[in-house]
């Protein structure tokens, strides 16, 4: 049966509920600009009403309510939108890292330009053509040949060194990315423990969930993954990886409060000892050396999974390649491949230049035009190619004619004609192979001495380089296009999420006024009850 004291309790509950709601409004406003914060709401519901009429209760006109209570403090979040955003962030992370380095590679090659390798190569062949017209020992064309050859070697050397420097830079960035990813995973693990403890205790850990979601967003930029919710709002994380056969696989790296696997970075490989030096969690201060069955299998791999559980117990480090599907780490891995490809192509160009020019030039007096060591791909020709020092010191030693004592310029003309000769640039690994590939006539008694024929399946050195630049341009444009598209898509998705989960100051002010008025009304109700009690107690006594 209701009474004044029952009404008083209803009013007290009303004030408490409105106060809690105002507290949440205040929390929302305070975190309006907090990254990753999701707006929270107090879910109000009626308390248990008085029971139905029975033999022990009097009949009432209806169930009488007992007030209001805060049933739950919820956060507004769309988990499906979160998953979509993280998927797109992984794609963006990959192409942002690619765009960054591909644009730098384009800057290195500077094509097309007057100072680019293609232009310098053209000037090199032009100078030989000029020398063929003026092959005299004192001809200034000889000095021009040496100068243009040196400029060509310098251009190749510099491009190769810049690519090597970029590779080292990519290594540092990848190591840092691994460090950040491992740190994020560790933080998620700790939050999982706290979240589960709070839920088991009957609480809604909204702020902790927001912090975990923010970390999950950040992790998605590093690599692509799937999540699975477990009991008491814990999560599992499955990294998406690529198997050796190219198919997609998943690796469970985190389960609730247990981090099964974390990441390490390969710093150095010893192929003779089959040992790998790694940075545990990408930390350069935590180096470990592990033994593998075949170190060559890790040549193009820079990131590993390692068994965190076994390592923490002091066991051996069980590591396996981490070939991610997407994310910035995957992007940097592909950049390693790109840089290695361009370095290989520069080596092919330097080797083909060296072998072709040396074969024709040395046939006259056994003097190589370029450093002979650049004929071997194992010596990194692009790194060491240089003009024979004896020719630099005395350009008169350049053999421009068929015989050194003749002045017909035929040998210089043959080298100049290399500009338009198609050859197997990637397959020429010796002078004999070059002679066979272009059908070079080496019979000095023949009227067709030093004549050549293009390999119908080959390509000129200049066009080989231009095809390299063309492929680079396509890759760079693709990365730029993907970054633009992903940014536009993510902007739309994040705007949608902000409209759902973000704090609207206008809405919060409206709610604040609403709950304030309700609080005031409940306070007024207490004043009314006080007056009624005064009538009941004091008024009746006076009578």
TrEMBL record:
Residue ranges occupied by any Flagellar basal-body/hook protein C-terminal domain in the UniProt entry: 500-536
Keyword Secreted in the entry? The reply is yes
The Flagellar basal body rod protein N-terminal domain covers: 13-37
Q: Which UniProt keywords apply?
A: Bacterial flagellum, Cell projection, Cilium, Flagellum, Secreted
Q: Name one GO cellular component term.
A: extracellular region
Q: Name one GO biological process term.
A: bacterial-type flagellum assembly
Q: Does the keyword Transmembrane apply?
A: no
A single MF term (Gene Ontology)? structural molecule activity
The record ties this protein, via InterPro entries, to:
Flag_bb_rod_N, Flg_bb/hook_C_dom, FlgK, FlgK_helical
Compartments in which it is found? Bacterial flagellum; Secreted
- Matching SUPFAM superfamilies: Phase 1 flagellin
Question: Which superkingdom does the taxonomy of this entry point to?
Answer: Bacteria
Query: What residue stretches are annotated with the Flagellar hook-associated protein FlgK helical domain?
Result: 102-367
Checking Pfam families in the record gives: Flg_bb_rod, Flg_bbr_C, FlgK_D1
The Swiss-Prot or TrEMBL record describes its family as follows: Belongs to the flagella basal body rod proteins family.
Q: Protein name, please?
A: Flagellar hook-associated protein 1
**Which classification does the entry list for the species?**
Bacteria, Bacillati, Bacillota, Clostridia, Eubacteriales
